[in-house]
Amino acid sequence: QALRQLLFLISGTTLNCLLLRKDTCSWSCGIQLRYNISQVEQWLRAQGLQQSGACEVLEPLVQAAQLLQVKKVTEEDSRALCSLCTVLTPQQVVKILRAYSPAAGLEERVSPRFISSVERQLQDQYGEGPGQLLVDTSRLFPVHLPFTASPLHLDELHIPETLNLAFLGRL
User: Fold this and answer.
1) Is residue 35 in a domain?
2) What is the DSSP letter of 158?
3) How far is residue 33 from each of residues 20, 27, 62, 96, 157, measured CA to CA in Å?
4) Do 82 and 125 form a contact (C-beta atoms < 8 A)?
5) Of 137, 138, 135, 143, whose CA–CA distance to 52 is shortest?
6) Does 153 reside within a domain?
7) One GO molecular-function annotation for this sequence (predicted)?
8) Is 38 a member of any domain?
9) What is residue 157's predicted lDDT score, i.e. its pLDDT?
10) What percent of the residues of the chain are helix, what percent strand, and what percent coil, each to the nearest 5?
11) What's the predicted TM-score (pTM) here?
């Protein structure tokens, strides 16, 4: 549970930096992010922690990294991109697309037409509700402590006199 909280904090902070800093929205940053996340996921599997919920808190960051890596030109690309980004809010997707910096000489800037197409598809898909741009990293997950019933019954319990708990009585 502590690991899940820690990975949520790391994932949220990284996604917020990605949304706020234009220099991090590039194909090469997406490759680096995806590699690092896959290393964390591999470690979680090796430790038997894949069912702990830690992988789920990494999912928005995984989708953001994939968003940076996909082709962003045609209408088919926009449909594929919308089906890929299920955990990110429409505002986050559009913000990353607007901030995307193409590799020098290797690709073109994302066209405004493509961005508006994606925005329209996402609004159709998710509605026009108020979306959150940044991740609230102060969110705390509840702690779940497993309960194991004691085989000892309370009426069998003997309290020693040395504890000075004479005020306790049986009902």
Assistant:
1) yes
2) -
3) 16, 10, 8, 14, 57
4) yes
5) 143
6) no
7) GTPase binding
8) yes
9) 78
10) 60, 0, 40
11) 0.79
Q: How many CA atoms lie within 13 A of 95 on its CB side?
A: 20
Q: Greatest CA span in the chain, whole angstroms?
A: 84
Residue 82: which of 138, 22, 140, 122 has the closest Cα?
A: 122
- Residue 137 to residue 135: CA distance in whole angstroms: 6
CA distance 56 to 41: 10
Instruction: Kindly report the number of other CB atoms within 10 A of residue 139's CB atom.
Output: 10
Q: Which domain holds residue 74?
A: 1-126
Query: How big is the chain, counted in residues?
Result: 171
Instruction: Provide the token pair at 107.
Output: 């690709």
132 in a structural domain: no
Distance CA 128, CA 149 (A): 48
Question: Which tens digits make up the pLDDT trace of 13-61?
Answer: 999 999 999 999 999 999 999 999 999 999 999 999 888 888 999 999 9
81-140 pLDDT per residue, tens: 999 999 999 999 999 999 998 877 677 889 999 999 999 999 888 776 667 889 999 988
Number of domains in the chain: 1
